[in-house]
Amino acid sequence: MFYLILKFSKLLTKLFQTKLLNTRVDIKSDIETISRIPAVAHILEIVCKTTGMGFAAVARVTTEKWIACAVRDEINFGLVPGGELTLETTICNEIREHRQPVVIDHVAEDEHFANHHTPLTYGFQSYISIPIILKNGDFFGTLCAIDPKPAKLNNPTITGMFKMFADLIAFHLDAMEEIAESEERLQLEKETSELREQFIAILGHDLKNPVNAISNSSQLLNRMDLDYRGQRLVNIIHDSAFKMTGLIENMLDFASGRLGGGISLTRTHYSNLDTILDQVISEMQIISPERRLMANYDFKHPIYADGKRIAQLFGNLLANAVKYSPAEALIEIVADSDHNGFVLRVSNPGKPIPEEVIERLFQPFSRGEVSPDQKGLGLGLYISFEIAKAHGGTLSVSSCEEQTCFTLNIPAQ
């Protein structure tokens, strides 16, 4: 148990760290992401061939750094992916602030940039840089190109091409970010789900022994000569232990089904199941002696099933019928078998189940409308459905103003 608590604590820490890291700028990750976009290399090649410029790059521009993520260098400018320029020496730093394209055909003839420190520092005469803006509005960097010779860049064809390529790069970055976040969320959800189910399984095992001890002790006390008050207390203990045992079994089966691949069965051939079914009914009558239960059996054909699992399923259906029917209601149990298979029906009058509830009734933790004294985990019908499925059968429900009926159908084998 301590191990699971520690593991859960580590999982929460991992979740917090993941969210924290996602808020930071990870330059290395950005370079790797750009390198995984196949179109980038083709974009830089087209840019150079179309404009005649010798250097093109996709740059990551932050408040602190200018980093080359992808490069095509035909003029020996000297930058490679991961290479860095001093941020303040670049025009991209200005673009980060105003988020507008900068296009220069000929630096020496440009009124604004003729004496600008950037071309003086790096020795280029032609320059174009288009901002790359992500879907959330964040500024990623620029798609830029330079050359020591003048070039005809400031025209709709060239600027339109650059803007289209910048948008395409932004689209890929957004898509890859969404995929990465989805995979990360799925992994965290998987780990959380597995941890929760391990916790349920271990908790169930830890609870089983003391509950068995309580149940056995109540049975021993029941054999003693007790007064009315003592007998009443013993019945309360026995009733509570019975309910707790059912909850624990459902918890264990839920965890086993999720972690182990389904409900396990140990099948046997039965000429009939009346003893098993009567035992469940007797147990329910001890717990609820005032309730009216009527059973009719007609077994004409052997049944190949797991008797313990059938008893568990029947107990869940019977407890459900008692819980959701009026105190004076008659609960009817019908079981029969023939060459087609085994059928078990549990019917009770009561408030009809709404259609939208029926659609999810056999899902885990799903429950109908309940009163404050009808609380539970919502696993009984889910486990019953899984038991039916493990037998190759079905568990269905019909509900109307007259009655609600659950039907188990297991085909002959």
From TrEMBL:
Catalysed reactions, semicolon-separated: ATP + protein L-histidine = ADP + protein N-phospho-L-histidine
Cited InterPro entries: GAF, GAF-like_dom_sf, HATPase_C_sf, HATPase_dom, His_kinase_dom, HisK_dim/P_dom, HisK_dim/P_sf, Sensor_HK_Regulatory
Domain Histidine kinase: 202-413
Pfam families xrefs: GAF (PF01590), HATPase_c (PF02518), HisKA (PF00512)
PROSITE patterns: HIS_KIN (PS50109)
The keyword Cell cycle is assigned to this record: no
Keyword flag Phosphoprotein: yes
Keywords of the record: Kinase, Phosphoprotein, Transferase, Two-component regulatory system
Enzyme class: transferase
Record-linked CDD domains: HATPase, HisKA
Enzyme Commission designation: 2.7.13.3
Top-rank taxon, per record: Bacteria
A GO term, aspect molecular function: phosphorelay sensor kinase activity
UniProt cross-references to PANTHER family, sorted A to Z: HISTIDINE KINASE 1 (PTHR43711:SF1), TWO-COMPONENT HISTIDINE KINASE (PTHR43711)
The protein's name in its UniProt record: histidine kinase
Organism per entry: Pedobacter rhizosphaerae
